Amino acid sequence: CLGGGSWKCKENEESSAVGSAAALHSDSGAISSNSKGRGILYEQLHDRGKAEEDKTYKPTQLRRWRPVPPVPVNRGMPGENGKAVLIPPEKEALMKEKFKLNQFNLLASDMISFNRSLADVRLEGCKSKVYPKLLPTTSIVIVFHNEAWSTLLRTVWSVINRSPRPLLREIILVDDASEREHLGRQLEDYVAKLPVPVHVFRTEKRSGLIRARLLGAKHVKGEVITFLDAHCECTEGWLEPLLARIAEDRTTVACPIIDVIADDTFEYISASDMTWGGFNWKLNFRWYRVPQREMERRGNDRTAPLRTPTMAGGLFSIDKDYFYHLGSYDEGMDIWGGENLEMSFRVWQCGGILEIIPCSHVGHVFRDKSPYTFPGGVSKIVLHNAARVAEVWMDEWRDFYYAMNPGVHVWMCGGQVEIATCSHVGHVFRKSTPYTFPGGTSKIVNHNNARLAEVWLDEWKEFYYSINPGARSVDVGDVSQRKSLRHKLKCKSFRWYLENVYPESQMPLDYYHLGEVRNVETQNCLDTMGHKSGENLGVSYCHGLGGNQVFAYTRRQQIMSDDNCLDATSPEGPVKLVRCHGMGGNQLWVYDKNAQTIKHVNTGQCLTKPDVRDASTPLLRPCDGSIGQMWVMNSKFKW
Ligand code: LR7
Ligand code: MN
Questions:
Q1: The ligand 1 atom nearest the CA atom of 313
Q2: Percent of the chain predicted with pLDDT > 90
Q3: Rounded to the nearest 10 degrees, what angle do helices 185-192 and 149-162 cross at?
Q4: Who's near 492: CB < 8 A, 6+ residues apart?
Q5: Which cofactor does it need (predicted)?
């Protein structure tokens, strides 16, 4: 949930209209309902005929169970039934003080019972579902660093109170080098008295959530590992559907619907069953609306498992053997971030299924900020983890990530990873003669840039880093083991993933250009200025640093920046950034490589530099062949 400024992932939920797969897809040719490789059934994607017995559990691995009765309301206690807790005005100062400790309302949390009751938020169709009488057992693994006592214990108690006892093998708590008194002896003494086995393991030094989870997983005795964050609340019937799905097919990774526990009031708010997981160019996890094609695949049954391209990362169940078969986690990832997309890509590309099970609901405290330290700096760590995902799993599409995070890319050139990638980058700067680029002035500019890069690359790097301080020390580390894992498991390509699992993705399948779009007259570049969907496009001094000045010109003739597209509704403009809808219309642009014009198809107008000097919004004007209507896109043209 980090990145893009927001930790409250659920607030990023997309509300864009749901069309067909084709409608939402952002690139690559017309898609008809019968076009190859789109929205086809999973059974056709993987050869699932073999290894049939691998998918079933031995009888000794299964347990007979019965549903757990609902947790009774603790009359008179705050927050019962998942209601909001209100803090009296005289305690507001104390509340604010305590908020800083965990970036949620700790005072409110401390007032709520560990055993608080919750409303049954499931769809009616879920309540009457019948699951197999025998199911595999699971161990719950919860990792934490400086978690609050009340949230941690409420997580533990909600597991105990709402999981059928025979299915709950144990709870494994992994303390990732916390510095809070209550997480030491006090915790061990407390859990020793609990009615189910609870084990506490401790990392020797701060390891981050990924390596902490690996430590926890090592001690799992159940058949299935279920990971939870340390500030969750499980609701009635949360576990059975996850385990039943895995019992049906051990290569399924099953996630609950993640409901929102408000960080300010601890109100339990049911989340939509119409969102799934996606991601953007910066490799931030994002919620998007489930497309129609997936609804159709599920026979429009909202209680049926929902295949999701990615998962949020914190809450899921996976068969223990399959977890290791798939390569568990990337130990080279630190503290927080990246592992969720890494596992999502890996599951899909290597033959598994990733699903949200809508009959399983677990609440999670979503917060705006992270409460704990990121030793070495947030962006260094998050960029490092994401670069490892990009390197191992994303093939050519790693370029989108590097375009948005140029500092990472520069580091790559000097680094030990992927020498092939680096020489490719060097190629652009060194081998292209200015004469192979079309156009007048740009020829000179490129020539100068090439000389600059060739002679002054070190200084140029410094310039990069001083503007992107977080990227200064980004170090991808050694990814060779993860690559050989991918090879060993004969995993499919990222293109396969985009085409078959995630055709609605904001990663264009094919594109002509990825990089800056420079005006020939002013030598300024198109710039999103960090604007959001619905706001105007900008232009500014070309900084060559990627990010807000990176645009893709796709084969479907969109000009995209992340998940927004250049869009105009009137012949006079303005040109806006609008969420890409993939249906052409106002988002269709024709770049004429020779004339260097960018023509808006619907209005027939040309993209034009601002008419006053220093103005920062480009215009739409009748095409007149003037130099202010000429734009250079020179990254990778193959027409
Ligand atoms: O160094 C650390 N050591 C830890 O043990 C840092 C964190 N942790 C623990 C931490 O105490 C917590 O229990 O790891 C757990 C997750 O950390 P959070 O709660 O700070 O993460 P998050 O909820 O903001 O982030 C989501 O993305 C993460 C990416 O690495 C993890 O996958 C989280 O598990 C994940 N949380 C969810 O999926 C819940 C839904 C949020 C969304 C979207
Ligand atoms: Mn969390």
A1: 32
A2: 68
A3: 20
A4: 348, 349, 350
A5: Mn(2+)
168-175/198-202 β-pairing:
parallel
What is the distance between the terminal CA atoms of the chain, rounded to a whole angstrom?
38
Q: What is the mean pLDDT of residues 464-478?
A: 50
Instruction: Give the integer Cα–Cα distance in Å for 257 and 357.
Output: 7
Tokens at 390, concatenated = 């990009």
Name the pLDDT band for 20 (thresholds 50, 70, 90): very low
Task: From 178, 187, 229, give the residue whose CB has the most ligand 1 atoms within 8 Å, as the site to mutate.
Answer: 229
pLDDT over 90 at 573, yes or no: no
- Residue identified by tokens 């990337």 is 330
Residue 141: CB partners within 8 Å, gap ≥ 6? Answer: 172, 174, 213, 216, 217, 220, 225, 226, 227, 228
pTM of the model: 0.83
Segment 408-417 shows an average pLDDT of 37
As beta bridge partners, residue 559 has: 553
Task: Read off the tokens for 587.
Answer: 């988002």
Of 230-239, 391-400, 571-580, highest mean pLDDT = 230-239
pLDDT digits (tens, 9 = 90+) for 282-322: 889 999 999 999 999 999 999 999 999 999 999 999 999 99
| H and E: helices and strands count for the chain | 19, 27
Structural Rg of the chain based on CA atoms: 26
Q: How many Cα atoms are found within 13 Å in the side-chain-facing hemisphere of 388?
A: 28
The answer to whether the beta carbons of residues 481 and 487 sit under 8 Å apart is no
**Does ligand 1 have an atom closer than 6 angstroms to the CB of 1?**
yes
Residue 236 and residue 365 in contact, taking contact as beta carbons nearer than 8 Å: no
For the CA of 315, the nearest ligand: 1
Ligand 2 centroid to Cα of residue 128, in Å, is 31
SS3 content of the chain, % helix, strand, coil (to 5): 35, 20, 45
Phi, psi of 448 (to 5 degrees): -60, -40
Report the mean per-residue pLDDT for the chain. Answer: 84
Length of the chain: 639
Ligand 1 close to Cβ of residue 339 (< 6 A): yes
Measuring CA to CA, which residue among 306, 343, 307, 305 is closest to residue 325?
343
- Shortest-distance atom of ligand 1 to CA 232: 39
Q: How far apart are CA 418 and CA 451, in angstroms?
A: 25
Task: State yes or no: pLDDT of 499 exceeds 80.
Answer: yes
Spatial separation of the C-alpha atoms in residues 111 and 114, rounded to whole Å: 9
What tens digit of pLDDT does each residue of 128-159 get?
999 999 999 999 999 999 999 999 999 999 99
- Work out whether strand 252-261 and strand 353-365 pair parallel, antiparallel, or are unpaired: parallel
Q: What single string gives the DSSP state of each residue in 208-259?
A: HHHHHHHHHHHT--SSEEEEE-SSEEEPTT-HHHHHHHHHH-TTEEEEEEEE
Position 438 pLDDT exceeds 90? no
Token representation of residue 295: 């609804």
Does ligand 1 have an atom closer than 6 angstroms to the CB of 201? no
